[in-house]
Amino acid sequence: MEISVFGTGYVGLVAGACLSDLGNTVTCVDIDEKKIEALNRGNVPIYEPGLEELVKKNHAEKRLFFTTNSVEAIQNSRIIFIAVGTPQDEAGRAELKYVIQVAQTIAKNANSPKIIVDKSTVPIGTAKKVQDLVRSITSHEIDVVSNPEFLREGTAVRDFLEPDRVVIGAYNEKSADTIGLLYKPLGKEILFTSPESAEMIKYASNAFLATKISFINEIANLCEKTGADVCEVAMGMGLDPRIGKQFLNAGAGYGGSCFPKDVAALQRIAQDHDLEMKIVHATQQVNAGQKIVPVEKLRREFASLAGKKIVVLGLAFKPNTDDMREASSVEIIRALSKEGARICAIDPIAEENAKKILAGTKGLEFEKDPYKAAKNADAIILATEWNEFLELDFARIGKEMKSKILVDARNVYDKKTLMGLGFKHQGIGR
Ligand code: UDX
User: Fold this and answer.
1) 18: alpha, beta or left, given left = phi > 0 and alpha = psi -120 to 50?
2) N or C: which end of the chain has fewer CB within 10 A?
3) Is the entire prediction scored with pTM above 0.90?
């Protein structure tokens, strides 16, 4: 099928590359000329395992194209995906400006019937709004379908090609079936719903997962007071299939481009309908507090953090990405800096992005080698559990440090082993 995808961010690029790999002819459209030029040379601007290979292969085999020419892309495609950003506006709502702009461009340039597929995360009711808008501009038959993405950064390609579920929300059965055909090669069950339900499924799923994390973090804080170990508790809970094991890892809270934004947006949507999302609100509050729990632990270790050298291992909001959006490390580093600590930060991939977000932070320096960073350090905080940090030689690290204090904010190290090496190991909730 002839498809175009508007927006070459994480979602658009992954969707475009994967759909072309399934045999479709896909044109990815973006207004950013430099980005399009780079993509045409095979350079993928984001760090996403497996994506560059997929882009290069399908581009070489002439199934995947990149262009700034939206008119041509629209006129050559029967199916048009919208995967542009929906950043959070000041009131916490998802900003629809870019989605609307693309929809208008499609309507103004449509030369035949089209299906617009909305992949961006948008407020409930957006498909209807977009459909009404395009139909007011063109007389060509245009249907709008909601097809939310459930991609995790770092495993986005696999998540697209091996999804747990595909959700297609449509008003028109024929359009729903046409979009369903795109996903048929994946061999997964497709859930057909109304567009409103599809839009809600996305928000409800992310808010639920975020709630699971905040819930276990609250339990973790209580475990610390009562002598229980949250890892054992999570294991015991997770064995009940109704609860499930996933997303019960206590730590320094959640970050990223989705959970914080979607949790805020869902509350805003509710407010716009005179409702209050009490649980979702609590999820957000617990998460804000949880991000600085590692710093609170250090405050209890030292009379003052002023002048202390603290190593922060891992900066990205999670491993295997360079994404720093809403990363817990940012809150940790800002809190440490405020108290006059000297911070030595390390990340295998996200250093450049971290430097931008944390520009001007007092007392912050970056290091590449953890062993060098550990020299004369008063404490280490593991903020993001990159594989590189799981296999560190802590006997060697300990020899470099001034005091062997380790805050394991993702509960990844073996407490007994570290204690054997003379470390004071502090996990979260244990
Ligand atoms: C998430 C959803 O998982 C995905 O389905 C959706 O499409 C986009 O948002 P992503 O933001 O890439 O994906 O990351 P994810 O792996 O879900 O982790 C989000 C955050 O939660 C990370 O900061 C992670 O460290 C944290 N987390 C996750 C926990 O603190 N504990 C857990 O048990 C799981």
Assistant:
1) alpha
2) N
3) yes
